[in-house]
Amino acid sequence: MTTPRYIFPHKHLLGIEPLSPADITAILDQAEAFEEVCERPDIKIVPALRKRLVVNLFFENSTRTRNSFEIAEKRLSAEIINFDADTSALSKGETLIDTAMNLQAMHPDLIVMRHSAAGAHALLARHMKASIINAGDGAHEHPTQALLDAYTLRQKFGKLDGLRLAIVGDIRHSRVVRSNLWLLTKMGAKVTLVGPPTLLPVEMKDTWPEVEFSYDLDAVLPEMDAIMALRAQFERGTGQYIPGAGEYIRYYQLNAARMKRAKKDVAILHPGPMNRGFEITSEVADGPNNLILDQVTNGVPVRMAVLYLLSNPHGEQVP
Amino acid sequence: MSEPQAPCLLDAQQMEAYLLRVSREIAAAFGHDENLVLVGIRSRGLPMAERLGRMLEASLGREVPIGILDITLYRDDLTEMAGSPIVRPTEIPFRLKDKTVVLVDDVLFTGRTIRAGLDALLDHGRPKRVWLAVLVDRGGRELPIQADFVGLKLEVPMTQRVSVRVQEIDNVDGVYLEGRS
After folding, report:
1. Of A79, A94, A305, B153, which has the maximum CB count within 10 A?
2. Is A111 in the same domain as A194?
3. pTM assigned to the model
Protein backbone atom coordinates (compact mmCIF):
# COMPACT_ATOMS: atom_id res chain seq x y z
CA MET A 1 0.00 0.00 0.00
CA THR A 2 1.31 3.46 -0.81
CA THR A 3 1.61 5.80 2.15
CA PRO A 4 -1.06 8.48 2.62
CA ARG A 5 1.59 11.16 2.05
CA TYR A 6 2.34 10.06 -1.53
CA ILE A 7 1.33 12.68 -4.10
CA PHE A 8 0.89 11.64 -7.73
CA PRO A 9 3.53 13.77 -9.46
CA HIS A 10 2.16 13.91 -13.03
CA LYS A 11 -0.12 16.50 -14.58
CA HIS A 12 -1.03 14.36 -17.59
CA LEU A 13 -1.35 10.70 -18.43
CA LEU A 14 0.12 10.66 -21.93
CA GLY A 15 1.45 7.13 -21.64
CA ILE A 16 2.82 4.53 -19.24
CA GLU A 17 6.40 5.30 -20.31
CA PRO A 18 6.89 8.34 -18.00
CA LEU A 19 5.41 6.60 -14.92
CA SER A 20 7.51 5.12 -12.11
CA PRO A 21 6.62 1.80 -10.47
CA ALA A 22 5.43 3.84 -7.44
CA ASP A 23 3.07 5.86 -9.68
CA ILE A 24 1.67 2.67 -11.22
CA THR A 25 1.19 1.11 -7.79
CA ALA A 26 -0.54 4.30 -6.59
CA ILE A 27 -3.03 4.17 -9.47
CA LEU A 28 -3.75 0.47 -8.89
CA ASP A 29 -4.16 0.99 -5.14
CA GLN A 30 -6.49 3.94 -5.73
CA ALA A 31 -8.50 1.81 -8.12
CA GLU A 32 -9.14 -0.62 -5.25
CA ALA A 33 -10.77 2.17 -3.26
CA PHE A 34 -12.89 3.11 -6.28
CA GLU A 35 -13.84 -0.53 -6.87
CA GLU A 36 -15.59 -0.38 -3.51
CA VAL A 37 -17.56 2.65 -4.76
CA CYS A 38 -18.55 0.72 -7.91
CA GLU A 39 -19.77 -2.24 -5.85
CA ARG A 40 -21.96 -0.30 -3.43
CA PRO A 41 -25.51 -1.61 -3.30
CA ASP A 42 -27.18 1.76 -3.78
CA ILE A 43 -25.30 4.93 -4.56
CA LYS A 44 -22.26 4.28 -6.75
CA ILE A 45 -21.32 7.96 -6.87
CA VAL A 46 -18.83 10.02 -4.86
CA PRO A 47 -18.49 13.82 -4.95
CA ALA A 48 -14.72 13.85 -5.64
CA LEU A 49 -14.87 15.64 -9.02
CA ARG A 50 -17.83 17.89 -8.27
CA LYS A 51 -17.28 21.30 -9.90
CA ARG A 52 -14.79 19.76 -12.36
CA LEU A 53 -15.35 19.88 -16.11
CA VAL A 54 -14.20 16.87 -18.14
CA VAL A 55 -14.17 16.94 -21.93
CA ASN A 56 -14.24 13.64 -23.81
CA LEU A 57 -12.55 14.40 -27.10
CA PHE A 58 -12.72 11.43 -29.45
CA PHE A 59 -11.25 11.79 -32.93
CA GLU A 60 -11.46 8.04 -33.46
CA ASN A 61 -14.38 5.75 -32.86
CA SER A 62 -14.44 3.94 -29.57
CA THR A 63 -17.44 2.55 -27.82
CA ARG A 64 -16.11 0.72 -24.82
CA THR A 65 -13.25 3.02 -23.85
CA ARG A 66 -15.44 6.07 -24.14
CA ASN A 67 -18.34 4.50 -22.24
CA SER A 68 -15.97 3.33 -19.54
CA PHE A 69 -14.51 6.83 -19.15
CA GLU A 70 -17.96 8.37 -19.12
CA ILE A 71 -19.17 6.01 -16.38
CA ALA A 72 -16.01 6.75 -14.39
CA GLU A 73 -16.57 10.51 -14.75
CA LYS A 74 -20.21 10.22 -13.72
CA ARG A 75 -19.34 8.15 -10.66
CA LEU A 76 -16.96 10.94 -9.63
CA SER A 77 -19.71 13.59 -10.07
CA ALA A 78 -17.84 15.46 -12.82
CA GLU A 79 -19.49 17.76 -15.36
CA ILE A 80 -19.11 16.14 -18.78
CA ILE A 81 -18.94 17.42 -22.34
CA ASN A 82 -18.71 14.93 -25.19
CA PHE A 83 -16.96 16.36 -28.19
CA ASP A 84 -17.30 14.29 -31.33
CA ALA A 85 -14.89 14.85 -34.15
CA ASP A 86 -17.63 14.08 -36.66
CA THR A 87 -19.88 16.86 -35.51
CA SER A 88 -17.17 19.39 -34.72
CA ALA A 89 -15.56 22.13 -36.70
CA LEU A 90 -12.71 19.73 -37.46
CA SER A 91 -14.74 18.39 -40.32
CA LYS A 92 -14.84 21.97 -41.57
CA GLY A 93 -11.04 22.21 -41.58
CA GLU A 94 -10.17 23.51 -38.10
CA THR A 95 -6.73 22.47 -36.85
CA LEU A 96 -6.17 20.52 -33.66
CA ILE A 97 -4.59 23.58 -32.03
CA ASP A 98 -7.61 25.75 -32.91
CA THR A 99 -9.90 23.11 -31.47
CA ALA A 100 -7.74 23.01 -28.36
CA MET A 101 -7.79 26.79 -27.94
CA ASN A 102 -11.56 26.83 -28.29
CA LEU A 103 -11.86 24.11 -25.67
CA GLN A 104 -9.47 25.98 -23.41
CA ALA A 105 -11.83 28.94 -23.49
CA MET A 106 -14.37 26.72 -21.70
CA HIS A 107 -11.85 26.09 -18.89
CA PRO A 108 -12.00 22.32 -18.72
CA ASP A 109 -10.10 20.61 -15.89
CA LEU A 110 -9.48 17.32 -17.64
CA ILE A 111 -9.51 16.24 -21.27
CA VAL A 112 -9.82 12.59 -22.24
CA MET A 113 -8.65 12.27 -25.82
CA ARG A 114 -8.39 9.59 -28.45
CA HIS A 115 -6.55 10.57 -31.62
CA SER A 116 -4.96 8.62 -34.44
CA ALA A 117 -1.67 10.57 -34.28
CA ALA A 118 0.89 9.52 -31.68
CA GLY A 119 2.01 13.07 -30.82
CA ALA A 120 -1.42 14.69 -30.63
CA HIS A 121 -1.72 14.42 -26.86
CA ALA A 122 1.67 15.94 -26.14
CA LEU A 123 0.83 18.78 -28.54
CA LEU A 124 -2.44 19.43 -26.73
CA ALA A 125 -0.71 19.25 -23.35
CA ARG A 126 1.63 22.06 -24.40
CA HIS A 127 -1.24 24.32 -25.45
CA MET A 128 -3.73 23.74 -22.66
CA LYS A 129 -3.99 24.26 -18.94
CA ALA A 130 -6.13 21.15 -18.51
CA SER A 131 -4.75 17.72 -17.66
CA ILE A 132 -4.72 15.44 -20.69
CA ILE A 133 -5.53 11.74 -20.47
CA ASN A 134 -4.55 9.61 -23.44
CA ALA A 135 -7.42 7.29 -24.35
CA GLY A 136 -5.46 5.82 -27.25
CA ASP A 137 -3.21 7.35 -29.89
CA GLY A 138 -2.59 5.44 -33.12
CA ALA A 139 -0.29 2.48 -32.55
CA HIS A 140 1.59 4.30 -29.77
CA GLU A 141 0.00 4.00 -26.29
CA HIS A 142 -3.29 3.25 -24.57
CA PRO A 143 -2.30 3.70 -20.94
CA THR A 144 -5.63 3.12 -19.18
CA GLN A 145 -6.03 -0.21 -21.00
CA ALA A 146 -2.62 -1.34 -19.72
CA LEU A 147 -3.54 -0.16 -16.22
CA LEU A 148 -6.81 -2.10 -16.21
CA ASP A 149 -4.99 -5.18 -17.56
CA ALA A 150 -2.45 -4.85 -14.74
CA TYR A 151 -5.23 -4.33 -12.20
CA THR A 152 -7.00 -7.47 -13.44
CA LEU A 153 -3.78 -9.51 -13.30
CA ARG A 154 -2.95 -8.20 -9.82
CA GLN A 155 -6.47 -9.05 -8.67
CA LYS A 156 -6.00 -12.64 -9.89
CA PHE A 157 -2.35 -13.28 -8.91
CA GLY A 158 -1.83 -10.81 -6.04
CA LYS A 159 1.23 -9.29 -7.70
CA LEU A 160 2.82 -8.52 -11.07
CA ASP A 161 6.45 -9.13 -10.13
CA GLY A 162 7.65 -12.43 -11.57
CA LEU A 163 4.42 -13.10 -13.45
CA ARG A 164 4.93 -14.88 -16.79
CA LEU A 165 2.72 -13.50 -19.52
CA ALA A 166 2.50 -14.09 -23.27
CA ILE A 167 0.97 -11.46 -25.53
CA VAL A 168 -0.17 -13.18 -28.71
CA GLY A 169 -1.14 -11.97 -32.16
CA ASP A 170 -1.10 -8.65 -33.96
CA ILE A 171 1.75 -7.03 -32.03
CA ARG A 172 2.57 -4.72 -34.94
CA HIS A 173 -0.64 -2.70 -34.90
CA SER A 174 -1.35 -2.74 -31.18
CA ARG A 175 -1.05 0.32 -28.94
CA VAL A 176 -2.29 -1.85 -26.09
CA VAL A 177 0.84 -3.95 -26.32
CA ARG A 178 3.17 -0.95 -26.12
CA SER A 179 1.55 0.42 -22.98
CA ASN A 180 1.49 -3.08 -21.54
CA LEU A 181 5.19 -3.62 -22.25
CA TRP A 182 6.09 -0.40 -20.45
CA LEU A 183 3.91 -1.26 -17.51
CA LEU A 184 4.68 -4.96 -17.14
CA THR A 185 8.46 -4.57 -17.53
CA LYS A 186 8.50 -1.70 -15.00
CA MET A 187 6.59 -3.90 -12.55
CA GLY A 188 8.85 -6.93 -12.99
CA ALA A 189 6.62 -9.24 -15.04
CA LYS A 190 8.27 -11.49 -17.62
CA VAL A 191 6.68 -10.89 -21.01
CA THR A 192 6.95 -12.99 -24.16
CA LEU A 193 5.59 -11.58 -27.42
CA VAL A 194 4.24 -14.27 -29.71
CA GLY A 195 3.06 -14.05 -33.31
CA PRO A 196 4.01 -14.63 -36.92
CA PRO A 197 7.29 -12.88 -37.93
CA THR A 198 5.42 -10.35 -40.05
CA LEU A 199 3.35 -9.13 -37.08
CA LEU A 200 6.25 -9.18 -34.60
CA PRO A 201 8.48 -6.13 -35.16
CA VAL A 202 11.94 -7.16 -33.90
CA GLU A 203 12.95 -3.50 -33.45
CA MET A 204 10.78 -3.52 -30.32
CA LYS A 205 13.69 -5.42 -28.77
CA ASP A 206 15.65 -2.13 -28.82
CA THR A 207 13.10 -0.47 -26.53
CA TRP A 208 12.35 -3.47 -24.33
CA PRO A 209 15.51 -5.65 -24.27
CA GLU A 210 14.16 -7.79 -21.42
CA VAL A 211 11.16 -8.93 -23.45
CA GLU A 212 11.32 -12.31 -25.22
CA PHE A 213 10.07 -12.94 -28.74
CA SER A 214 8.70 -16.21 -30.05
CA TYR A 215 7.10 -17.46 -33.25
CA ASP A 216 6.10 -20.71 -31.55
CA LEU A 217 3.08 -20.35 -29.27
CA ASP A 218 2.83 -24.07 -28.49
CA ALA A 219 6.42 -24.05 -27.18
CA VAL A 220 6.00 -21.17 -24.75
CA LEU A 221 2.41 -21.86 -23.68
CA PRO A 222 3.14 -24.36 -20.84
CA GLU A 223 5.21 -21.85 -18.84
CA MET A 224 2.72 -18.99 -18.90
CA ASP A 225 0.62 -17.73 -15.98
CA ALA A 226 -1.45 -15.55 -18.30
CA ILE A 227 -2.12 -15.21 -22.02
CA MET A 228 -3.29 -11.99 -23.59
CA ALA A 229 -4.74 -12.38 -27.07
CA LEU A 230 -4.70 -9.25 -29.20
CA ARG A 231 -7.34 -8.30 -31.71
CA ALA A 232 -6.27 -8.73 -35.32
CA GLN A 233 -6.71 -5.18 -36.62
CA PHE A 234 -7.95 -5.91 -40.10
CA GLU A 235 -8.99 -2.26 -40.47
CA ARG A 236 -5.31 -1.33 -40.09
CA GLY A 237 -4.18 -3.85 -42.68
CA THR A 238 -3.38 -6.94 -40.61
CA GLY A 239 -4.67 -9.11 -43.46
CA GLN A 240 -1.76 -8.05 -45.66
CA TYR A 241 0.78 -9.31 -43.11
CA ILE A 242 -0.40 -12.92 -42.90
CA PRO A 243 -0.58 -15.55 -45.62
CA GLY A 244 -4.11 -16.45 -44.69
CA ALA A 245 -6.57 -16.96 -41.86
CA GLY A 246 -6.06 -20.74 -41.91
CA GLU A 247 -2.38 -20.54 -41.20
CA TYR A 248 -2.79 -17.93 -38.45
CA ILE A 249 -5.46 -20.04 -36.79
CA ARG A 250 -3.33 -23.20 -37.02
CA TYR A 251 -0.38 -21.64 -35.19
CA TYR A 252 -1.71 -18.79 -33.06
CA GLN A 253 -5.41 -19.12 -32.33
CA LEU A 254 -6.32 -19.61 -28.68
CA ASN A 255 -8.55 -22.65 -28.89
CA ALA A 256 -9.48 -25.49 -26.54
CA ALA A 257 -7.08 -28.01 -28.11
CA ARG A 258 -4.11 -25.65 -27.82
CA MET A 259 -4.99 -24.52 -24.29
CA LYS A 260 -4.58 -28.10 -23.06
CA ARG A 261 -0.83 -27.42 -23.20
CA ALA A 262 -1.20 -24.46 -20.81
CA LYS A 263 -1.35 -24.40 -17.01
CA LYS A 264 -4.76 -25.42 -15.72
CA ASP A 265 -5.52 -22.04 -14.19
CA VAL A 266 -3.87 -19.89 -16.88
CA ALA A 267 -5.59 -16.49 -17.09
CA ILE A 268 -6.99 -15.45 -20.48
CA LEU A 269 -7.17 -11.75 -21.32
CA HIS A 270 -8.28 -9.87 -24.42
CA PRO A 271 -8.59 -6.08 -24.76
CA GLY A 272 -11.65 -6.45 -26.98
CA PRO A 273 -13.45 -6.29 -29.25
CA MET A 274 -12.80 -9.94 -30.08
CA ASN A 275 -12.72 -11.55 -33.49
CA ARG A 276 -14.33 -14.77 -32.28
CA GLY A 277 -13.18 -17.70 -34.36
CA PHE A 278 -10.00 -15.92 -35.44
CA GLU A 279 -7.55 -15.03 -32.65
CA ILE A 280 -9.67 -16.75 -30.00
CA THR A 281 -12.51 -19.29 -30.01
CA SER A 282 -15.69 -18.87 -28.01
CA GLU A 283 -14.79 -21.95 -25.99
CA VAL A 284 -11.72 -20.18 -24.63
CA ALA A 285 -13.17 -16.67 -24.56
CA ASP A 286 -16.13 -17.84 -22.48
CA GLY A 287 -14.20 -20.52 -20.59
CA PRO A 288 -13.65 -20.69 -16.83
CA ASN A 289 -10.20 -19.02 -17.00
CA ASN A 290 -11.24 -15.95 -18.93
CA LEU A 291 -10.83 -12.55 -17.27
CA ILE A 292 -12.14 -10.68 -20.30
CA LEU A 293 -15.26 -9.30 -18.64
CA ASP A 294 -13.28 -8.56 -15.45
CA GLN A 295 -11.12 -6.35 -17.64
CA VAL A 296 -14.20 -4.42 -18.75
CA THR A 297 -15.53 -4.13 -15.18
CA ASN A 298 -12.15 -3.03 -13.84
CA GLY A 299 -11.86 -0.34 -16.50
CA VAL A 300 -14.22 1.92 -14.55
CA PRO A 301 -12.44 2.02 -11.14
CA VAL A 302 -9.05 2.24 -12.85
CA ARG A 303 -10.19 5.25 -14.89
CA MET A 304 -11.79 6.78 -11.78
CA ALA A 305 -8.40 6.48 -10.09
CA VAL A 306 -6.61 8.20 -12.98
CA LEU A 307 -9.19 11.01 -13.19
CA TYR A 308 -9.04 11.51 -9.43
CA LEU A 309 -5.25 11.54 -9.17
CA LEU A 310 -4.97 14.09 -12.01
CA SER A 311 -7.81 16.29 -10.79
CA ASN A 312 -5.91 18.29 -8.18
CA PRO A 313 -3.21 20.66 -9.35
CA HIS A 314 0.07 20.03 -7.64
CA GLY A 315 3.01 22.39 -7.28
CA GLU A 316 5.89 20.47 -8.79
CA GLN A 317 4.30 18.39 -11.48
CA VAL A 318 6.24 16.60 -14.15
CA PRO A 319 4.57 15.90 -17.49
CA MET B 1 6.62 13.71 12.55
CA SER B 2 5.34 15.66 15.53
CA GLU B 3 7.74 16.79 18.20
CA PRO B 4 8.25 14.08 20.81
CA GLN B 5 8.26 16.63 23.65
CA ALA B 6 4.64 17.64 23.02
CA PRO B 7 2.80 17.79 26.37
CA CYS B 8 0.95 14.59 27.13
CA LEU B 9 -2.77 15.09 27.88
CA LEU B 10 -3.51 11.39 28.37
CA ASP B 11 -1.08 8.52 28.76
CA ALA B 12 -1.85 4.99 27.51
CA GLN B 13 -3.60 3.99 30.73
CA GLN B 14 -5.73 7.13 30.93
CA MET B 15 -6.62 6.82 27.26
CA GLU B 16 -7.82 3.28 27.91
CA ALA B 17 -9.86 4.49 30.90
CA TYR B 18 -11.55 7.24 28.87
CA LEU B 19 -12.35 4.83 26.06
CA LEU B 20 -13.82 2.41 28.59
CA ARG B 21 -16.08 5.17 29.85
CA VAL B 22 -17.22 5.92 26.31
CA SER B 23 -17.94 2.22 25.74
CA ARG B 24 -20.01 2.09 28.95
CA GLU B 25 -22.04 5.07 27.80
CA ILE B 26 -22.66 3.42 24.42
CA ALA B 27 -23.63 0.18 26.18
CA ALA B 28 -26.04 2.07 28.47
CA ALA B 29 -27.70 3.79 25.52
CA PHE B 30 -27.76 0.97 22.95
CA GLY B 31 -26.72 -2.24 24.73
CA HIS B 32 -30.20 -3.66 24.19
CA ASP B 33 -30.15 -2.72 20.50
CA GLU B 34 -29.40 -5.78 18.35
CA ASN B 35 -28.79 -3.45 15.38
CA LEU B 36 -25.92 -1.56 16.98
CA VAL B 37 -22.85 -1.15 14.75
CA LEU B 38 -19.70 0.97 15.02
CA VAL B 39 -18.20 2.82 12.07
CA GLY B 40 -14.68 4.20 12.47
CA ILE B 41 -13.43 7.11 10.37
CA ARG B 42 -9.95 6.60 8.89
CA SER B 43 -7.27 6.92 10.06
CA ARG B 44 -7.40 7.03 13.85
CA GLY B 45 -11.14 6.65 14.25
CA LEU B 46 -10.66 3.07 13.11
CA PRO B 47 -8.47 1.87 16.03
CA MET B 48 -10.83 3.79 18.37
CA ALA B 49 -13.81 1.86 16.91
CA GLU B 50 -11.95 -1.45 17.12
CA ARG B 51 -11.09 -0.88 20.79
CA LEU B 52 -14.61 0.23 21.63
CA GLY B 53 -15.85 -2.86 19.78
CA ARG B 54 -13.72 -5.16 21.95
CA MET B 55 -14.90 -3.40 25.13
CA LEU B 56 -18.54 -3.65 24.05
CA GLU B 57 -18.13 -7.31 23.15
CA ALA B 58 -16.75 -7.97 26.63
CA SER B 59 -19.56 -6.14 28.42
CA LEU B 60 -22.48 -7.14 26.16
CA GLY B 61 -21.35 -10.71 25.44
CA ARG B 62 -21.91 -10.34 21.70
CA GLU B 63 -19.96 -9.09 18.76
CA VAL B 64 -20.65 -5.54 17.57
CA PRO B 65 -19.98 -5.26 13.80
CA ILE B 66 -17.43 -2.63 12.77
CA GLY B 67 -17.29 -0.67 9.52
CA ILE B 68 -14.55 1.56 8.13
CA LEU B 69 -15.18 4.89 6.44
CA ASP B 70 -12.65 6.82 4.34
CA ILE B 71 -14.01 10.36 3.95
CA THR B 72 -11.34 11.76 1.60
CA LEU B 73 -13.63 11.90 -1.45
CA TYR B 74 -16.24 13.83 0.59
CA ARG B 75 -13.94 16.53 1.99
CA ASP B 76 -15.20 20.06 1.35
CA ASP B 77 -11.64 21.27 0.69
CA LEU B 78 -10.73 18.54 -1.82
CA THR B 79 -10.66 20.87 -4.82
CA GLU B 80 -8.37 23.27 -2.98
CA MET B 81 -5.71 20.72 -2.18
CA ALA B 82 -2.32 20.48 -3.85
CA GLY B 83 -2.33 16.94 -5.11
CA SER B 84 -5.00 14.32 -4.57
CA PRO B 85 -4.68 12.60 -1.20
CA ILE B 86 -4.56 8.81 -1.41
CA VAL B 87 -7.96 7.25 -0.74
CA ARG B 88 -8.16 3.94 1.05
CA PRO B 89 -11.11 1.59 0.80
CA THR B 90 -14.30 2.10 2.74
CA GLU B 91 -15.57 -1.17 4.19
CA ILE B 92 -19.16 -1.33 5.36
CA PRO B 93 -19.67 -5.11 5.62
CA PHE B 94 -23.36 -4.86 6.57
CA ARG B 95 -26.55 -3.28 5.23
CA LEU B 96 -27.15 0.04 6.97
CA LYS B 97 -30.93 -0.17 6.78
CA ASP B 98 -32.44 -0.09 10.32
CA LYS B 99 -29.00 0.00 11.97
CA THR B 100 -28.07 2.12 14.95
CA VAL B 101 -24.73 3.51 13.88
CA VAL B 102 -22.22 4.95 16.31
CA LEU B 103 -19.76 6.92 14.20
CA VAL B 104 -16.33 6.94 15.86
CA ASP B 105 -13.45 9.39 15.49
CA ASP B 106 -10.46 10.28 17.63
CA VAL B 107 -10.84 14.08 17.89
CA LEU B 108 -13.83 16.35 17.28
CA PHE B 109 -12.67 19.81 16.18
CA THR B 110 -14.34 21.86 13.39
CA GLY B 111 -16.96 19.21 12.66
CA ARG B 112 -16.10 19.15 8.94
CA THR B 113 -14.76 15.60 9.03
CA ILE B 114 -17.98 14.43 10.68
CA ARG B 115 -20.09 16.27 8.07
CA ALA B 116 -18.11 14.46 5.35
CA GLY B 117 -18.46 11.21 7.31
CA LEU B 118 -22.25 11.57 7.48
CA ASP B 119 -22.47 12.17 3.72
CA ALA B 120 -20.20 9.20 3.03
CA LEU B 121 -22.16 6.99 5.41
CA LEU B 122 -25.58 7.91 4.02
CA ASP B 123 -24.41 7.02 0.50
CA HIS B 124 -24.21 3.44 1.76
CA GLY B 125 -27.82 3.30 2.94
CA ARG B 126 -30.34 4.69 5.39
CA PRO B 127 -29.57 3.79 9.00
CA LYS B 128 -32.18 4.15 11.73
CA ARG B 129 -30.00 6.68 13.52
CA VAL B 130 -26.41 7.91 13.65
CA TRP B 131 -24.77 8.98 16.91
CA LEU B 132 -21.23 10.21 17.37
CA ALA B 133 -18.52 9.02 19.75
CA VAL B 134 -15.11 10.71 20.09
CA LEU B 135 -12.17 10.26 22.44
CA VAL B 136 -11.51 14.03 22.64
CA ASP B 137 -13.79 17.02 21.98
CA ARG B 138 -11.39 19.95 21.71
CA GLY B 139 -13.93 22.67 20.82
CA GLY B 140 -13.56 25.05 17.85
CA ARG B 141 -16.63 23.96 15.89
CA GLU B 142 -17.32 25.46 12.45
CA LEU B 143 -20.47 23.44 11.83
CA PRO B 144 -23.49 22.62 14.04
CA ILE B 145 -22.24 19.15 15.00
CA GLN B 146 -21.93 17.74 18.53
CA ALA B 147 -20.78 14.40 19.89
CA ASP B 148 -23.13 12.12 21.87
CA PHE B 149 -20.38 10.17 23.62
CA VAL B 150 -17.24 12.07 24.65
CA GLY B 151 -14.17 10.82 26.53
CA LEU B 152 -12.30 14.03 27.29
CA LYS B 153 -13.75 17.51 26.74
CA LEU B 154 -11.31 20.44 26.39
CA GLU B 155 -11.13 23.99 25.07
CA VAL B 156 -7.92 24.15 23.05
CA PRO B 157 -6.70 27.34 21.28
CA MET B 158 -6.94 27.24 17.46
CA THR B 159 -3.14 27.41 17.18
CA GLN B 160 -2.76 24.08 18.92
CA ARG B 161 -3.43 20.56 17.73
CA VAL B 162 -4.69 17.63 19.74
CA SER B 163 -2.91 14.56 18.46
CA VAL B 164 -4.17 11.10 19.32
CA ARG B 165 -1.48 8.49 18.84
CA VAL B 166 -2.23 4.80 18.71
CA GLN B 167 -0.12 1.68 18.90
CA GLU B 168 -1.44 0.42 15.55
CA ILE B 169 -0.22 3.44 13.57
CA ASP B 170 2.20 5.42 15.77
CA ASN B 171 3.68 2.64 17.94
CA VAL B 172 2.51 4.44 21.08
CA ASP B 173 -0.79 5.12 22.86
CA GLY B 174 -1.51 8.61 24.17
CA VAL B 175 -3.05 12.01 23.54
CA TYR B 176 -0.68 14.96 23.01
CA LEU B 177 -0.96 18.71 22.64
CA GLU B 178 1.11 20.09 19.77
CA GLY B 179 1.94 23.65 18.69
CA ARG B 180 2.28 26.85 20.69
CA SER B 181 -0.33 27.92 23.23
Report:
1. A305
2. no
3. 0.92
